[in-house]
Amino acid sequence: MPINFDHVPNRRKIAQINKWTYYPKDILPMWVADMDFPAPKPILNALHKVLDQGVLGYELASKSLYETIAARMDRLYGWKIEPDMVTAVTGIVSGFNVAARAFCTPEKGILVQPPVYNEFHTVKDHVGIPQVNAPLIKNVRGNILSYEIDWDMFEKQAKKAGMFLLCNPHNPLGIIFSRKELTKMAEICIRNNVLIVSDEIHSELLLDDNKFTPLAKISPEIAKHTITLIAPSKTFNIPGLFCGFAIITDQELRKKYVKMVEDLRIHVNSLGLFAAQAAFSGQCDGWLRNLRRYLTANRNFLLTYVTENMPEVRTTVPAATYLGWLDFTSTAINGSPFEFFMKEAKIALSDGKIFGQEGEGHVRINFGTSQELLEQGLGRMKKALDKI
Ligand SMILES: Cc1ncc(COP(=O)(O)O)c(C=O)c1O
Fold it and tell me: Tens of pLDDT along 41-100?
């Protein structure tokens, strides 16, 4: 059945503190990375079934869940993994923190590519290790932004790291790295004895007809040095269920990782496991095709709106995710655009600087919402900009 993504439920009615209730009521929230759409029916049905039974007891990830994940990796990418290579974790953030605890040292820390997902920047403090940055190079063409890898920098910084935390597709830039780039990054890491942790949480949120290849699928040699993190949370909009998976093909690496998961007593939410099984079963793929079309239309709307109405603002053209990245450094905004738009436009965006200092003067906008709300948000931004 086609889904109407134009209708979004009121998330202020049933709420603790969420995207819609965190800020005062007059603020339009386009910040934290969840979407405003209900999850697909097969997931909701699976959860209803558990609720109807009434017992919300402890559940462990079953063999059948891991088989479902292995089958999905094969079906989507032709990536052949065994079910016992999969470990359930309470999410991707805990997944990469576990890896940093297991494999980094105070001498050899974590390598990241800013501007990048804010939680990447918190690992150093949580784990007590250094962070080394290999910032992406920003290119500007007209009002379009693109970013590329600074290879000399990447190679230089890899020598100081124990683990490379890759974000692919990239949040907040929406990049899907090419096979060639992935191979080159992996080769540099392997040469320098750097473990790769590939955060692929956004891998199924592809726009246009874009394709995705898991890093570890590229070659057995790369897989041997890689921990892949996936989750149904972004794709099917169930991040509040806190359930993700680490796929580790190398037995020694896996043993060490699983031991750290056990040492830290990381127990996955039972409802998350049921939801993940339904999400990865294939029953939600029709919903996902419609979602991608809707998000692609929203991305196009955003680009056209910015180009036509705010020509001094620069934007990326995200290939994946529901996240746009806007650059205000050539506008008349004095200071932080995040604060400017909060105050003058009553819209909550994500402050670019949480993604690293390279993000100063930028904001991330979440377009995982109805086109009506997206238009409203952009309209508020234009009006505030026109007043300066
Ligand atoms: C790249 C990336 N990794 C991880 C997460 C969060 O993962 P989790 O909620 O499973 O910890 C996000 C959420 O925005 C993200 O963008």
Answer: 999 999 999 999 999 999 999 999 999 999 999 999 999 999 999 999 999 999 999 999
Helix, strand or coil for residue 195? Answer: strand
Best residue for ligand 1 mutational test, from 212, 230, 234, 243 (most atoms within 8 Å of Cβ) = 234
Q: How confident is the model at residue 3 (pLDDT cuts 50, 70, 90)?
A: confident
- Band of the pLDDT at 4, cuts 50, 70, 90? confident
Among candidate residues 192, 236, 195, 234, the one with its CA nearest the CA of residue 216: 195
The rounded Å distance from CA 333 to ligand 1 centre is 30
171, 177, 354, 355, best to mutate for ligand 1 pocket (most atoms within 8 Å of CB): 171
Helix (H) or strand (E) holding 162: strand 161-167
d(CA 40, CA 45): 9
Which ligand 1 atom is the nearest neighbour of the CA of 323? Answer: 16
